[in-house]
Structures are given as structure tokens and as C-alpha cells.
UniProtKB/TrEMBL annotation:
Keyword match Transcription: yes
Domain of life where this protein originates: Bacteria
Lineage, uppermost ranks: Bacteria, Bacillati, Actinomycetota, Actinomycetes, Pseudonocardiales
Protein's UniProt keywords contain DNA-binding: yes
One record GO biological process: carbohydrate derivative metabolic process
Keywords: DNA-binding, Transcription, Transcription regulation
Protein name: RpiR family transcriptional regulator
């Protein structure tokens, strides 16, 4: 677990929250909401405030990836050292001014992308590149706020020589997913990992024997359970449905990471495709 990255502890714990039992999640939400209290509290004090048993506090810490409550407290201290004076992400309210909205959104988006380094596991990234780089074709799908990262991924990867497509509707995507060859990749992008349309496409791909790469905000979800490779990257919740928006930026950053890695995996192919893209762009400029 990376807690040496600013915001890394918050991002890591937030990513596993949906997979925790309710009482454990209650403890960890309190830790995220008031890390200063959690750093100084005893097991009994934290249990009393969370209205759970002391044993639940220890279990919650272990379920979140720590060796115990003491290990969690040490991680909170290290996290504070990486961002002195930082406060937990605020939420937008009806009294927020435009200036405050601007400052909070820009700051939280930047922090979310930086903290993604704590939830992206190098081994998972290596597996993702190994899956995508040699693929004959890549199917990408996302709905709602995940549709834009899906479209961007398909275009960016096509521009470096991959045959990638991102159909807009679930029915078309399911048809294409069922026609994938065994081992060919579907990249499913979803903030929650619970979008019905996305899961239907994933199930169609699995029926065909295809491999599934998930780019999502949570380590535990129906999508993560179905995927062969999971890349976790999320953003803070500022209220007003802003969590999916923040996560979209983190997901775009993951797309960029994969774009660069796939390019270097086959530089001749990438350079050939980029030359074609340049020719098309120049031809378009001359015709105006």
C-alpha cells in the first residue's frame, strides 16, 4: 500500500470501501472524515465514536489493508507528513461562491490524479500493457461520465496503430463483444463498477472468451469481480455527483499511461500510425 504519495491513504481506503462489511466501512469512513481524531484516538475511543466494538476497529483496519489499528495510525501520520496542513476534501454547498467552487474543483481534481499513484499497482499496469499491446483489436466501452474516457481511449490507441473502437450504445457494444476472439481485450471503464449497461457488455465479452480490463474507481465491485485485470483510479466526492467527474479525469490519466506504454511496446507501429495521422491532418489543412 502506497501511503508516501500525497492523498494516497485516502485514495487507497476509499477504493476498498464498497467491499467492506457495513460496520468496517463505518469505521473507515470516520477515519477518512476525521484523520486527526483517528491519529490520536485509542481503539476504544474510535470504537465509541463509530458506535462499534473495539474488535471491529481492528478488523476494519485489517480489512482495509493494514496490519492492525496501530499500523493504520502510523500510516495516518506518514500521510500527514506528505501533505502538511492539508484537510480532508470539502464538499460544494449552495453557499459556495464561484471562486470557492473553482478553487475546490481544481484543487481536488489535481489531488485526485496525484493520489492515483497509490491505487495503481505496477503489476496490474504491466498486465494491462501485455494484454493490449499485441491485441489484433481492442473494444472499449463506458456509459455516462465514462463514455468520454472510452471514446478518448479508442481514438488515442488507434492513433498509435491499435485497432480500437468505442461504440456509443450498449447493444452495439454487446454485439461486438460477442464477436471478440478468445483472449482479445475489452476495456470497460466505469466509476462505480456497477453500470448495468457496462456489465452486460462485459458478460458478452466473457461469453466469447475475451479478456476484460477494468478501469474503475473501486477495488471491489461487480465489474472488478468480472475483470481479468483491474486498474483502480478514483477522485474525491465533492457532492452534486462530482465524484464520477473527478474519477473521469483519473481514468483519462490511466488511458494516457497505457497510451505511452503501448507506444513503446511497438515503436515502429506507433511511428507508422502517427505519420498517417500527420498526413491526414495536413491534408485536411490544405483542403480548407
Amino acid at each position: 500500500m502506497r501511503t508516501d504519495i500525497p492523498g494516497g491513504l485516502h485514495a487507497t481506503v476509499a477504493a476498498v470501501l464498497p467491499g467492506l462489511r457495513p460496520s468496517d466501512a463505518k469505521v473507515m469512513r470516520l477515519v477518512l472524515a476525521d484523520p486527526a481524531f483517528a491519529r490520536s484516538a485509542t481503539t476504544d475511543e474510535l470504537a465509541a465514536r463509530a458506535e462499534v466494538s473495539p474488535a471491529t476497529v481492528v478488523r476494519a483496519a485489517r480489512a482495509a489493508g493494514f496490519e492492525g489499528f496501530g499500523d493504520l495510525k502510523r500510516a495516518l501520520v506518514r500521510d500527514l507528513a506528505t501533505q502538511p496542513g492539508a484537510a480532508p476534501p470539502e464538499q460544494l454547498t449552495e453557499t459556495s461562491t464561484v471562486s470557492e467552487i473553482s478553487e475546490l474543483v481544481l484543487t481536488s481534481h489535481a489531488a485526485g490524479i496525484r493520489a492515483t499513484g497509490a491505487t495503481l499497482h505496477p503489476a496490474a499496469l504491466d498486465n494491462a500493457v501485455s494484454l493490449l499491446a499485441p491485441a489484433r483489436s481492442i473494444l472499449v466501452f463506458g456509459v455516462g461520465t465514462s463514455a468520454a474516457p472510452a471514446a478518448d481511449a479508442a481514438y488515442r490507441w488507434t492513433a498509435i496503430g491499435c485497432r480500437a473502437g468505442a461504440p456509443h450504445d450498449s447493444r452495439t457494444a454487446q454485439l461486438q463483444a460477442r464477436q471478440l476472439r478468445p483472449g482479445e481485450p475489452l476495456v470497460a471503464i466505469s466509476h462505480s463498477g456497477r453500470s448495468v449497461e457496462t456489465l452486460a457488455v462485459v458478460d458478452a465479452a466473457r461469453t466469447a472468451g475475451a479478456s476484460v480490463l477494468a478501469i474503475t474507481s473501486f477495488a471491489s465491485s461487480p465489474l472488478a469481480d468480472r475483470a481479468d485485470v483491474v486498474l483502480v483510479a478514483g477522485g474525491p466526492d465533492l457532492g452534486l455527483q462530482m465524484a464520477p467527474s473527478s474519477s473521469r479525469l483519473a481514468h483519462l490519466a490511466v488511458v494516457d499511461i497505457l497510451h505511452a506504454a503501448i507506444s513503446f511496446a511497438d515503436l515502429p507501429r506507433a511511428r507508422h500510425a502517427l505519420r498517417i495521422a500527420t498526413e491526414i491532418s495536413e491534408a485536411g489543412s490544405r483542403s480548407r
